[in-house]
Predict the 3D structure of the following.
Amino acid sequence: MSSILKLENLRVRFSTHRGQLEAVRGVDLDIQAGTSIGIVGESGSGKTVMSRAAMGLLTGSNVTRDGRISFDGKVLSDMSREEVRNEFGTGMAMIFQDPMTALNPVRRIGSQLQESLRVRLGMSRKESRARSIELLTLVRIPEPKQMLRKFPSQLSGGMRQRIMIAIAISCNPKLLFADEPTTALDVTVQAQILELLTDLRQRLNMTMVLVTHDLGVVAGNTDYVAVMYAGEIVEQAPTTELFANMKMPYTEALFKSIPNIQMKAGSRLPVIEGRLPDPTDRPLGCGFAARCSYAQEKCFAEHPELEEAKDGHLYRCWFPLGDSIPRKVS
Ligand code: SF4
């Protein structure tokens, strides 16, 4: 396997009226071609900012990005905005959480799909129509010819997400980012979309980055997981190893907040108590200390570095789970 996307010491800062907000703080990640990786964390953990920065989608005078980003052997962080834009859409593509905001509500599905093919691949009208039908078939839309004439508002959330997937794969990307692709959908449709993405990834030999707040979503759909908290990777491991031997109390808390089918109807979903630290005023020690039931004095005073447990299983914790050090459980 070879590296398809490599992030080295990636940092992203936003200038705000409250000062510098550091959303991504020195992330290193090496994604191998043909694999599927889950980036997991609560809202505000930095996972979406990191993904967008990696794709060159974060622009604006208030954004500062440092570090090195290499995609398929090319250093994206050295390229002009124009060059990055050319790479995006052919080399990389992204699916967003809410397809309704990404699709144009007043244009037919066929027109939106065909435009992508004509502009990016230079296809004729006839070629782009034939390819659109192929793509709709690939994302398992019944009666694809009729679908070309519909407007987004005539479709269910699941169908709209299938259209977004068809547009995203239309230029044969090597790398597909899926940012909370199933969050807005009900459970049955979620499972269908995840199964479709996994199937397409294998059939089209794509690499997939699945960005989600839900650790349950990555369980059967990724080879590797990186858990983010307060702008940093706090745990990273092959998916089976992570679920078998999680080291970080934060990962454990995410795991405990996965909805369970044995939960009684109407019962509240478990949540992680407390809040992420203020990104303009980071605590001295571990960012999770104020919320961690295992925290000890050292956790508040010193920031933990990434440690390797075994075979690429990394964690950032002074007192990892499974260790024999006595815990102070509140
Ligand atoms: S370093 Fe301390 S506070 Fe942070 S996750 Fe580990 S035990 Fe909890």
